[in-house]
UniProtKB/TrEMBL annotation:
<feature type="signal peptide">
    <location>
        <begin position="1"/>
        <end position="20"/>
    </location>
</feature>
<dbReference type="InterPro" id="IPR029046">
    <property type="entry name" value="LolA/LolB/LppX"/>
</dbReference>
<keyword id="KW-0732">Signal</keyword>
<protein>
    <recommendedName>
        <fullName>Lipoprotein</fullName>
    </recommendedName>
</protein>
């Protein structure tokens, strides 16, 4: 699967890179609730101590560490990027290299000419995307069921290969506020919102070691990004949204966090290179 966003906001995957309910059709990412700014006043405003600040900071750090002992995530990831929207449902893994096995609406990938199915299976394995396609009677796809697309070079429009990056960013969130309880797909969860900036991300050892993308590019060229996280009564993350600017967001709805999972590349004999096919997914 190939889209134009990577590790948290600079990239797509499922993507990875992967972050909206479990209905059958495409779903829009949760709308982040933005706090109303306080009107400017020339008069000094007394600073009121915030007794909950330390607790919220500690919670964000625990959330960021939640995935450290886990190496896989079953989730729905919705990527909205400059007018393009792609939804990915399935398995995302991380370790030495991010990988995934997901399905995406064929129309959102603009692959109707290559697949008659409503959804297309997308694999990310060893730095390449594999798209399930319908075999053709001639050409590079003759008798083959997969099209291979190399992962693009990372830039400010990279590739979302690890949806957990958004959760890891919680440790770097500043100004976290509690927006109250909300119902998330039948689960009552508390909604927290904060801001992460490039400097904090660049210094985050967890993100550096994850290797999904250089941390400084995660806000996709912006100086900061908004992070919204929903947490259930047991302190477990049930979803998060990274918003990098107008029309640029990655949302993740968690089904399960688990242990190591293996994802294998399709057989070479059943795979054709996208360059030989003469096309690639529009979201790539």
């Amino acid at each position: 699967m190939r889209t134009r966003v990577l590790a948290a906001c600079a990239a797509v995957a499922a993507t990875a890179v992967a972050l909206a309910g479990c209905s059958s059709g495409p779903a829009a990412p949760r709308r982040a609730v933005r706090p109303v700014p306080v009107p400017f006043s020339a008069s000094p405003v007394p600073v009121t101590p915030d007794p909950g600040r330390a607790a919220r900071t500690a919670l964000m750090r625990r959330l960021a560490a939640y995935g450290d002992a886990r190496q896989s995530l079953v989730a729905t990831e919705n990527v909205a990027w400059d007018g393009r929207k792609v939804r990915f449902d399935g398995l995302f893994t991380w370790g030495s290299r991010p990988a995934m096995d997901v399905r995406a609406p064929t129309a959102q990938l603009a692959m109707q000419e290559l697949s008659a199915s409503d959804t297309t299976e997308v694999l990310l394995v060893d730095g390449a995307f594999y798209y399930g396609v319908g075999p053709r009677p001639s050409g590079a796809l003759r008798g083959r069921h997969w099209m291979k697309v190399p992962v693009p070079r990372l830039s400010e429009e990279g590739l979302q290969a690890n949806p957990l990056d958004g959760l890891w960013m919680a440790a770097d969130a500043a100004g976290v506020i509690d927006l109250g309880s909300q119902n998330v797909d039948g689960t009552v969860a508390t909604h927290y919102q904060g801001t992460v900036d490039r400097a904090a991300l660049a210094a985050d050892r967890r993100l550096v070691l994850a290797g999904s993308a250089p941390p400084a590019v995660l806000p996709a060229g912006a100086e900061s990004a908004q992070l919204d996280v929903w947490v259930d009564a047991r302190g477990r993350p049930v979803g998060w949204v990274v918003t990098c600017g107008p029309g640029r967001s990655i949302s993740v709805d968690v089904t399960a966090l688990g242990g190591p999972r293996s994802i294998a590349a399709p057989p070479v004999a059943d795979t054709a290179d996208a360059a030989a096919v003469g096309g690639r997914p529009a979201a790539a």
